[in-house]
Structures are given as C-alpha cells and as structure tokens.
Write the structure tokens for this entry.
Amino acid sequence: MDFAHDCDPFPAAVKVLIAGGFGVGKTTFVGAVSEIEPLSTEELLTQISRATDSLEGVEGKATTTVAMDFGRITLGARHVLYLFGTPGQERFWFMWDELCEGALGAVVLADTRRLDQCFAAVDFFERRGLGFIVAVNEFEGAHRYTHEEVRAAVDLGADVPLVMCDARHASSTTEVLVNLVRHLIETRNEHAPEVVRPHEPSAPHP
Amino acid sequence: MAATSGGPWLDGDAGRLIRPYTVSGGRTRPTVSFDLLTLVRATGSRPHSQLGPDHAQVLGLCGRPTSVAEIAAHIRQPAVVTKVLLSDLLDCGAVATREPTLLGPDSPDLALLEAVLHGLRARL
C-alpha cells in the first residue's frame, strides 16, 4: 500500500473559496488550477431567513440545496487543497456564511466589464473577517484598467492585494493562490506578533 | 425522459425518476456528521452484512483518502444522501474518516499556511 510506512494515512484537507459574480469565470478558474475535472455537488446549506421570504410559522433557519463546483490540488503527501466556487447568483449570497466556515481564505474573481458583480463578495468577506484577495480575470477584448482604477472602482482597502490573472491557465491561477496564501501569512503575522516565525519566508517566486 | 451519461434518470417535469432518498432508505440524516471535506478511506475490513449496490459503489471510491464532496459528485447524489451511505459504512467499520483541517479566525496556524504555500509554489 502507498501508506504502508505512514502511521497516518490521511492528508490534511483544507479549502479556499473562489467567489465572484455570475459568469466571471469561477468554474474556468477552478478547472484550470484543479488536478481533476471540476466536479459538482449539491449540499444542503442553512439559510438565514430574510424578511422577504420568511414563511409564517417558520422561524429562524431553513435549508436549501445549493450546487457547488469544486476542484482539488494535492500538495505533497500531507496536504490536499479543495477549491470551492461559490454559487454565483447574488440571491444566494447569504449562504456563504456556512460555505466559508473553516476556509483558509478566498479569491474574489472580478471582470472589469462588470465590476459591480464582485461588490457583494468583497463586502461579505470584509465583514466576515475572512482573508481574501481580488483577482481580475482579464478577458480577451476587455479594456485593461490599471490597478489603481480597479481599486478605486471596487473601493478596495489598501491592505487587500489585487492581482491580474487569466482564469484559463494553470500557471496564472496557481500564481493567484500563491498570492492569496502569502497574503494570509502576512496578515496572520501582523495580527499575531507573539508567534515566533520559524524562518524567514523564501524569496518571492519570480 | 432522458438519461445523462451514467447520471440519474431525469424527466423534464418530474426531475429525478429515482428520488435521492430512495438510495438512503428514506433517511435524511447520517448517524455521524460529515463535512463536504471530510476525508474517507476504506479500512479493508468487509462488513458482515451484504452491501447494497450503492454502498458498494461508495466503498469502491474510497480506496485512497477521498472527500465526501468527490464521492457525492461521482455517484451523482446530493451530499446529504452520500453522507447517509457513508455513515452506514462507518458504522460497520468499512471506512475510516478524518475531519478537515478548519482554520478558525483565531488560530494562526502558520505552519499549515507555509506548507500550503510551499506546495503551491512547487507546482509553478
């Protein structure tokens, strides 16, 4: 067996969310970076009832089936990273609370032709306190904006990294994830000064 | 009526012709809680009772540590139905599970993040 000499045959499973509006390229992103064909699963998520859709006599929580695309990246023998695309329809935004429980962080994919589509995700992760970066998916033929222009349009905090990417390519999407995890490490270092770093980070990858 | 390749039989009006909970024997809750990212692996121990085809199919997917989400996607059943089948297999000792490593807001697990960063960089 593969794990004959290993007392713990299980790797640690971690997850990252790929968020953004409908049609922004989340499934393309997950497919490009995943080592498996993107899969889809239906999960029951608890939905906080809103005033508009609460039913008389039904209080608090209801569950709804949500379809989610996901992919997998095996990182050596000890870690496996799962990428979950959040449901794109904006009316499902309130379900993300359960989705992002335990996630390492999130990538908010943005399309410069429809930047308003990523506002909900940016707002949500800011309020939820989940570390995230914004990745602009540079569609062919779309006008190229500068980082400053996109930042201003999204009203993005100076501490949130903004990167450009091509969601169709494995190297570009992997680079986005590298940027995300580096950001998460830097943020944790700032917030947890008592943690002694075992070693200096290696030089940034070219 | 149309069957997607290997998927559930669908009817334009009625949806799935075999309701998902038929597979789980009408049960909607697994006996143990599973996350979508809970990893499952066959122990090699065969259950005493005869496995149904759905259980056997699930067990066949657990040769190496596999997430609940992947198993659900492969058998084309909702996650909740998959979890019921998995809890049966867990109850009879046919599979072992491992909860996912969840990162809380107050747990600065730098070693974990560094390991993930290292693994991602190795793919570039």
Observations:
- Chain A touches chain B through 53 residues (CB under 8 Å).
